[in-house]
Design goal:
There is one protein chain. The protein is an all-alpha fold. It has one domain: TerB-like, CATH 1.10.3680. Helices cover about 70% and strands about 0% of the residues. α2 crosses α4 and α2 runs antiparallel to α7. The protein starts with a helix and ends in a 13-residue tail after the last helix.
Amino acid sequence: MKFARSIMERLEEAKNQLTSTANVFTNRSFLKRAMCVGHVIGRSDGNLDDSEKQGLVNLVKGHPTLKSYSEEDIRKAFTEVDGLYAVTTPMGNRSALELIAETTDKSEAKALMEFGAVISTLDGTVDDSEIATLGKIAAALNEDLDSYRDLLEV
């Protein structure tokens, strides 16, 4: 009887872990933080133009950890994060990094770093400003940028 309860307890723990992981990639705060990552990296060269904005939205729609969101959810999160930049880019970046830093789940932090690396390589090169920006994101997430350098090779 004790053995059966032990198995049931382990199955329940596994179920809870799977549920938790699934929620990480479907909750609204994760989407908003991913948009923050996109904005901060996209603006690392000084500006996020309309084609880059559309590219970010399209990337989210097709990215494996983000494709479960509806286009309406994506656009809403994008607009919210874009609003952070209404005054100046540095102020927007500060607000976006503060939102990113609220991440407490390690799998979410890893997914956000991987997403940031993908965004950094979209134009076929990764420049010093993008690496510096990824370093700020890594610091906000308590991640080690060196663990993601292999993803920055284009």
